[in-house]
Amino acid sequence: MRLRNKILSVLLVLILTVLTYAAIATANFDSTGNIEKNKMKTIEVSGTGTVSIAPDEAIVVIGVQTRSADALVTQKDNAAKTEKVVNALIAANIAKDNIETSSYTMYPVRDEKGENITGYVVSNELKVTIKDINRTGDVIDRAVEAGANEVNSIRFTISDESQQKVREQALNNAVKAARLDADRLASELGVTITGPIQVSTSGGTITTPISFDIKSATTPILPGSVTVSAFVSVTYEFE
Protein backbone atom coordinates (compact mmCIF):
# COMPACT_ATOMS: atom_id res chain seq x y z
CA MET A 1 0.00 0.00 0.00
CA ARG A 2 2.80 2.38 0.97
CA LEU A 3 4.63 1.54 -2.24
CA ARG A 4 1.52 2.35 -4.23
CA ASN A 5 1.15 5.71 -2.49
CA LYS A 6 4.79 6.56 -3.23
CA ILE A 7 4.32 5.74 -6.90
CA LEU A 8 1.20 7.91 -7.08
CA SER A 9 3.05 10.77 -5.40
CA VAL A 10 5.91 10.58 -7.89
CA LEU A 11 3.48 10.51 -10.82
CA LEU A 12 1.63 13.51 -9.43
CA VAL A 13 4.87 15.50 -9.15
CA LEU A 14 5.83 14.59 -12.72
CA ILE A 15 2.40 15.62 -14.04
CA LEU A 16 2.57 18.95 -12.22
CA THR A 17 6.08 19.57 -13.57
CA VAL A 18 5.01 18.86 -17.16
CA LEU A 19 1.94 21.10 -16.83
CA THR A 20 4.08 23.92 -15.43
CA TYR A 21 6.55 23.79 -18.34
CA ALA A 22 3.69 23.61 -20.81
CA ALA A 23 2.11 26.70 -19.29
CA ILE A 24 5.39 28.60 -19.51
CA ALA A 25 5.90 27.56 -23.13
CA THR A 26 2.36 28.56 -24.07
CA ALA A 27 2.67 31.95 -22.39
CA ASN A 28 6.02 32.91 -23.91
CA PHE A 29 6.17 31.36 -27.37
CA ASP A 30 3.98 31.34 -30.44
CA SER A 31 3.56 28.46 -32.89
CA THR A 32 6.86 29.28 -34.65
CA GLY A 33 8.91 29.34 -31.48
CA ASN A 34 9.25 33.12 -31.37
CA ILE A 35 8.90 34.99 -28.08
CA GLU A 36 5.32 36.19 -27.84
CA LYS A 37 5.13 37.98 -24.52
CA ASN A 38 8.05 40.32 -25.01
CA LYS A 39 7.90 40.93 -28.75
CA MET A 40 10.40 43.42 -30.11
CA LYS A 41 8.94 46.71 -31.31
CA THR A 42 9.84 47.07 -34.98
CA ILE A 43 9.31 49.24 -38.04
CA GLU A 44 9.52 47.64 -41.48
CA VAL A 45 10.45 49.86 -44.42
CA SER A 46 11.69 49.44 -47.98
CA GLY A 47 13.93 51.59 -50.13
CA THR A 48 14.85 51.96 -53.79
CA GLY A 49 18.16 53.32 -55.01
CA THR A 50 19.05 54.27 -58.58
CA VAL A 51 22.25 55.32 -60.33
CA SER A 52 22.49 56.50 -63.95
CA ILE A 53 25.75 56.30 -65.90
CA ALA A 54 26.92 56.27 -69.50
CA PRO A 55 27.09 52.76 -71.04
CA ASP A 56 30.48 51.29 -71.87
CA GLU A 57 29.38 48.35 -74.04
CA ALA A 58 27.09 47.84 -77.02
CA ILE A 59 25.57 44.47 -77.93
CA VAL A 60 24.43 44.24 -81.54
CA VAL A 61 22.65 41.29 -83.15
CA ILE A 62 23.53 41.17 -86.86
CA GLY A 63 22.01 38.65 -89.25
CA VAL A 64 22.76 37.08 -92.61
CA GLN A 65 19.73 35.68 -94.40
CA THR A 66 19.92 33.79 -97.70
CA ARG A 67 17.32 32.16 -99.89
CA SER A 68 17.32 29.89 -102.93
CA ALA A 69 15.48 26.93 -104.42
CA ASP A 70 18.02 24.38 -103.16
CA ALA A 71 18.57 23.76 -99.44
CA LEU A 72 22.27 22.90 -99.73
CA VAL A 73 22.99 25.89 -101.97
CA THR A 74 21.20 28.19 -99.53
CA GLN A 75 23.17 26.79 -96.62
CA LYS A 76 26.54 27.12 -98.37
CA ASP A 77 25.72 30.63 -99.55
CA ASN A 78 24.81 31.65 -96.02
CA ALA A 79 27.98 30.13 -94.58
CA ALA A 80 30.17 31.98 -97.10
CA LYS A 81 28.49 35.34 -96.46
CA THR A 82 28.55 34.87 -92.69
CA GLU A 83 32.28 34.11 -92.83
CA LYS A 84 32.86 37.38 -94.71
CA VAL A 85 30.89 39.27 -92.07
CA VAL A 86 32.91 37.67 -89.25
CA ASN A 87 36.19 38.51 -91.00
CA ALA A 88 35.02 42.10 -91.46
CA LEU A 89 34.20 42.35 -87.76
CA ILE A 90 37.62 40.97 -86.80
CA ALA A 91 39.24 43.46 -89.19
CA ALA A 92 37.31 46.16 -87.32
CA ASN A 93 39.17 45.10 -84.13
CA ILE A 94 36.31 43.10 -82.66
CA ALA A 95 37.81 40.20 -80.68
CA LYS A 96 36.72 36.68 -81.67
CA ASP A 97 35.50 36.10 -78.12
CA ASN A 98 33.05 38.97 -78.61
CA ILE A 99 31.45 37.39 -81.70
CA GLU A 100 29.11 34.46 -81.21
CA THR A 101 26.19 32.80 -82.96
CA SER A 102 22.96 33.68 -81.16
CA SER A 103 20.56 31.94 -83.56
CA TYR A 104 20.67 29.69 -86.63
CA THR A 105 17.54 28.63 -88.50
CA MET A 106 16.65 26.93 -91.77
CA TYR A 107 13.13 26.48 -93.03
CA PRO A 108 11.31 25.73 -96.30
CA VAL A 109 9.25 28.29 -98.22
CA ARG A 110 5.98 27.02 -99.69
CA ASP A 111 3.70 28.29 -102.40
CA GLU A 112 0.51 30.23 -101.71
CA LYS A 113 -1.48 27.04 -101.25
CA GLY A 114 1.12 25.65 -98.86
CA GLU A 115 1.41 22.46 -100.87
CA ASN A 116 4.76 22.68 -102.67
CA ILE A 117 8.17 23.79 -101.42
CA THR A 118 9.51 26.63 -103.59
CA GLY A 119 12.73 27.34 -101.78
CA TYR A 120 14.65 27.48 -98.52
CA VAL A 121 15.67 30.26 -96.17
CA VAL A 122 18.71 30.14 -93.89
CA SER A 123 19.23 32.78 -91.22
CA ASN A 124 22.37 33.12 -89.10
CA GLU A 125 22.41 35.71 -86.32
CA LEU A 126 25.61 36.93 -84.68
CA LYS A 127 25.74 38.62 -81.29
CA VAL A 128 28.56 41.16 -81.34
CA THR A 129 29.83 42.88 -78.20
CA ILE A 130 31.45 46.24 -78.92
CA LYS A 131 33.69 47.56 -76.15
CA ASP A 132 34.05 51.02 -77.66
CA ILE A 133 30.47 52.27 -78.06
CA ASN A 134 31.61 55.24 -80.14
CA ARG A 135 32.41 52.75 -82.93
CA THR A 136 29.01 51.03 -82.89
CA GLY A 137 27.75 52.72 -86.06
CA ASP A 138 30.99 52.03 -87.93
CA VAL A 139 30.97 48.35 -86.92
CA ILE A 140 27.40 47.96 -88.17
CA ASP A 141 28.27 49.61 -91.48
CA ARG A 142 31.24 47.30 -92.00
CA ALA A 143 29.12 44.23 -91.28
CA VAL A 144 26.44 45.35 -93.76
CA GLU A 145 29.06 46.07 -96.41
CA ALA A 146 30.44 42.54 -95.92
CA GLY A 147 27.03 40.94 -96.50
CA ALA A 148 24.91 41.27 -93.36
CA ASN A 149 21.32 42.12 -94.32
CA GLU A 150 19.70 42.20 -90.86
CA VAL A 151 20.32 44.34 -87.78
CA ASN A 152 17.89 42.84 -85.30
CA SER A 153 18.75 44.68 -82.10
CA ILE A 154 21.12 47.14 -80.49
CA ARG A 155 21.41 47.18 -76.71
CA PHE A 156 23.64 49.46 -74.69
CA THR A 157 24.76 48.22 -71.31
CA ILE A 158 27.66 48.25 -68.89
CA SER A 159 30.42 45.73 -68.31
CA ASP A 160 30.33 43.29 -65.40
CA GLU A 161 32.93 45.32 -63.50
CA SER A 162 31.05 48.59 -63.96
CA GLN A 163 27.78 46.87 -63.12
CA GLN A 164 29.12 45.65 -59.77
CA LYS A 165 30.39 49.11 -58.80
CA VAL A 166 27.19 50.85 -59.82
CA ARG A 167 25.02 48.26 -58.06
CA GLU A 168 26.93 48.90 -54.83
CA GLN A 169 26.14 52.61 -55.17
CA ALA A 170 22.48 51.83 -55.89
CA LEU A 171 22.31 49.57 -52.81
CA ASN A 172 23.80 52.32 -50.65
CA ASN A 173 21.18 54.74 -51.96
CA ALA A 174 18.42 52.20 -51.28
CA VAL A 175 19.57 51.70 -47.67
CA LYS A 176 19.70 55.47 -47.12
CA ALA A 177 16.18 55.83 -48.52
CA ALA A 178 14.90 53.08 -46.21
CA ARG A 179 16.53 54.67 -43.16
CA LEU A 180 15.09 58.07 -44.07
CA ASP A 181 11.56 56.60 -44.13
CA ALA A 182 12.17 54.80 -40.83
CA ASP A 183 13.37 58.03 -39.17
CA ARG A 184 10.32 59.89 -40.44
CA LEU A 185 7.98 57.25 -39.07
CA ALA A 186 9.81 57.16 -35.75
CA SER A 187 9.60 60.94 -35.47
CA GLU A 188 5.86 60.92 -36.08
CA LEU A 189 5.36 58.12 -33.56
CA GLY A 190 7.60 59.73 -30.96
CA VAL A 191 9.95 56.75 -30.70
CA THR A 192 13.69 56.22 -31.20
CA ILE A 193 15.28 53.86 -33.73
CA THR A 194 17.88 51.66 -32.02
CA GLY A 195 19.17 49.83 -35.08
CA PRO A 196 18.41 47.36 -37.89
CA ILE A 197 17.67 43.76 -36.98
CA GLN A 198 16.98 42.36 -40.46
CA VAL A 199 17.97 43.45 -43.98
CA SER A 200 17.14 41.82 -47.30
CA THR A 201 17.53 42.77 -50.94
CA SER A 202 15.57 41.53 -53.92
CA GLY A 203 15.95 41.78 -57.65
CA GLY A 204 17.42 44.83 -59.30
CA THR A 205 16.99 46.28 -62.77
CA ILE A 206 19.11 47.74 -65.53
CA THR A 207 17.28 50.11 -67.87
CA THR A 208 18.97 50.84 -71.20
CA PRO A 209 17.01 53.26 -73.39
CA ILE A 210 18.44 53.72 -76.90
CA SER A 211 17.73 55.49 -80.15
CA PHE A 212 19.20 54.52 -83.49
CA ASP A 213 18.76 55.18 -87.19
CA ILE A 214 20.23 52.84 -89.84
CA LYS A 215 19.15 54.75 -92.94
CA SER A 216 22.26 56.88 -93.42
CA ALA A 217 25.62 55.82 -94.82
CA THR A 218 27.34 56.13 -91.44
CA THR A 219 24.94 54.78 -88.88
CA PRO A 220 24.39 57.31 -86.05
CA ILE A 221 23.88 55.75 -82.62
CA LEU A 222 22.51 57.63 -79.61
CA PRO A 223 23.03 55.40 -76.58
CA GLY A 224 21.51 57.58 -73.85
CA SER A 225 22.24 56.45 -70.28
CA VAL A 226 22.01 53.22 -68.30
CA THR A 227 20.02 53.25 -65.06
CA VAL A 228 20.75 50.63 -62.39
CA SER A 229 18.20 50.13 -59.59
CA ALA A 230 18.42 48.20 -56.32
CA PHE A 231 15.74 47.35 -53.74
CA VAL A 232 16.10 46.67 -50.01
CA SER A 233 13.76 45.83 -47.15
CA VAL A 234 14.89 46.73 -43.62
CA THR A 235 13.38 45.97 -40.22
CA TYR A 236 14.40 48.42 -37.50
CA GLU A 237 13.91 48.01 -33.77
CA PHE A 238 12.70 51.03 -31.79
CA GLU A 239 12.12 51.98 -28.20
Describe this entry's structure for a reader.
This protein has four helices and ten strands; from the N terminus they run H-E-E-H-E-E-H-E-H-E-E-E-E-E. It is α+β, with helices and mostly antiparallel strands and 239 residues long. The chain has three domains: 1-38, no CATH class; 42-54 and 161-238, Protein of unknown function (DUF541), domain 1 (Translation Initiation Factor IF3), CATH 3.30.110; 57-157, Alpha-Beta Plaits. Helix 2 runs antiparallel to helix 3. The longest helix is centred in the C-terminal third of the chain and has 30 residues, at 160-189. The protein is elongated. Residues 18-38 and 213-217 have low confidence and may be disordered.
Give a brief rundown of this model.
The protein is α+β, with helices and mostly antiparallel strands and 239 residues long. Helix content is 37%, strand content 36%. The strands form 3 sheets. Strands 1, 6, 7 and 10 form a 4-stranded antiparallel β-sheet that branches. A 4-stranded antiparallel β-sheet has the order 3-4-2-5.
CATH topology of the largest domain: Alpha-Beta Plaits
Got a strand count? 10
CATH class of the largest domain: Alpha Beta
Spans of 5+ residues with little confidence (pLDDT < 50)? 18-38, 213-217
Question: Could you name the key traits of this structure?
Answer:
single chain; 239 residues; alpha+beta; Translation Initiation Factor IF3; Alpha-Beta Plaits; 3 domains; four-stranded antiparallel beta sheet; 37% helix
